[in-house]
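Appendix B, record 7
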Amino acid sequence: KNVFVFVSHFHQDHYDRNVIFKWKDMNVRYILSKDCMYDKSLENVTVVNANKGYIIDGVAIETLKSTDEGVAYIVHSDGITIYHAGDLNWWHWEGEEEEFNLDQAKRYQQQMQLLADALDGNHLDLACIPVDPRLHSDCLRGLLAFDSRVFAKNILPIHFWGDFSVMQTLHDRLSPELFSRILTVEHPGKVCGNL
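C-alpha cells (predicted):
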C-alpha cells in the first residue's frame, strides 16, 4: 500500500524533518501544511491549504484551519474516515485575556461545524483529538465540543505531552458512553487494535 505522512504544521512536536524525510526513497507521499519548510526538489510532496479538498493517489483529503497553526485533516481511504486535529483545539488558557479565549471558542466552533458539514451525517472511524494537560481543568473543552457535533467510533487522545495521567482524567470526567470510545494510551507505542 501507499504510505502517506501527514504534517499538520511546522511546530517541532508535529514536524521532525530529520525523521520523516529519511523515508523519501520508499513508497511515501508527504502531505504538508503550507507553513512547513522542506526540500523543494522532492517530488512526492503535496502542500495543502486550510479549508480545501484534495484527491491524492486515490485518497480523499479535506483540511480545516487550526486555531493555532496549520491544518487539521479529514482523510477518506479504504472505506474508513479518519480525522486528525493537529493543533485544532479549543485553546482556553487560564490567565489569558478574555478576548483571546472568546475568539478561540468562536473559531473552534466554526471549524467543528465545517467538520460536521464535511461529514454530512456520516461518522468518523477514528478521531485524534488534543487533550492537553497544560489547559488544566479546560483540557477537555475541545473534545466535548467535538463530540457534540460529530460521532467518532474511536477517539485517540493526542497532544498530552507524555502525561499519561490524562487517561485517568478522561475516565473520571467523561460519560461512560463517551469514555467507551476512547482508545486509552498508557505508554508510548501502544497498539490500540483495529478500526
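Remarks on this record: The first strand starts at residue 3 and ends at 7. The radius of gyration is 17 Å.
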